[in-house]
Amino acid sequence: MPEVAKNLSRVPHPYTLSDAEDWLAVVKENPFNLSIFLNDELIGGVSLSDRRDNSYELGYWVGVDYWGQGFATEAASGLLNVAHSQIGSLVVVANVYKENVVSAQVLRKLGFTPTGEDEVFSLSRQARVPTFTYRYEA
Ligand SMILES: CC(C)(COP(=O)(O)OP(=O)(O)OC[C@H]1O[C@@H](n2cnc3c(N)ncnc32)[C@H](O)[C@@H]1OP(=O)(O)O)[C@@H](O)C(=O)NCCC(=O)NCCS
Q1: Ligand 1: residues whose CB is within 6 Å?
Q2: Residue 101 — left, alpha, or beta (φ > 0 → left; ψ -120 to 50 → alpha)?
Q3: Model confidence pLDDT, tens digit, residues 37-71
Q4: Largest CB tally within 10 Å, which of 54, 102, 107, 135?
Q5: How many distinct structural domains can be found in the chain?
């Protein structure tokens, strides 16, 4: 799904079997890396990656056919609540490409506040992409 990969920094496109195997190894290690299912069908994913500085980075995606129905917001909100209840005080950051207004709206609905600007290297675009940074504390 190029529409999804182009907005994510760590998802290459085209996506190979070996990319999927690498990702599954990461998923196994991280208790806060969850899949979103609708009636037994995989429709997305949401994760909190440990940045090893007492903060986490939030990431999420939803399959194109399911956009605009509140799934990303519901899944990310659930994961933030689970992480908060398991580890206590929680600091989460997020980096969203400047053009990704939908994702920025998701972050605002989750209670994230804007903190500035940055740039990340995108595997799918093979280029640095300007981002807005967000932060959440619970
Ligand atoms: C970003 C993404 C996860 C959103 O998933 P989703 O399930 O459609 O999101 P939700 O339905 O929970 O919320 C979308 C919000 O954006 C709003 N929105 C939709 N189109 C919009 C637009 N053009 N401009 C502004 N807001 C828009 C929706 O109305 C909704 O907000 P609302 O509930 O206040 O109306 C999905 O588009 C995706 O997977 N994109 C590719 C990967 C990606 O960008 N991941 C995030 C990287 S930071």
Answers
A1: 4, 7-8, 60-62, 67-73, 96, 100-103, 105-106, 109
A2: alpha
A3: 999 999 999 999 999 999 999 999 999 999 999 99
A4: 107
A5: 1
Helix, strand, or coil (residue 53): coil
pTM value > 0.85? yes
Distance CA 124, CA 33 (A): 21
CATH number assigned to the domain comprising residue 60: 3.40.630.30
Q: What is the domain range of residue 71? A: 2-137
Between the CA of 102 and the centroid of ligand 1 the distance, in Å, is: 4
Q: Whose CA is nearest to atom 31 of ligand 1?
A: 105
**Token output for 15:** 């996506």
- Which residue do the tokens 């990969």 mark? 5
| Helices 101-110, 71-87: crossing angle, 10 deg rounding | 40
| Mutation pick for ligand 1 pocket among 15, 99, 102 (CB with most ligand atoms within 8 Å) | 102
**ω before 14 within 30° of 0 (cis)?**
yes
Amino acid at site 47:
S
Nearest CA to ligand 1 atom 37: 67
* Helix locations, 40-91, DSSP H: 71-87
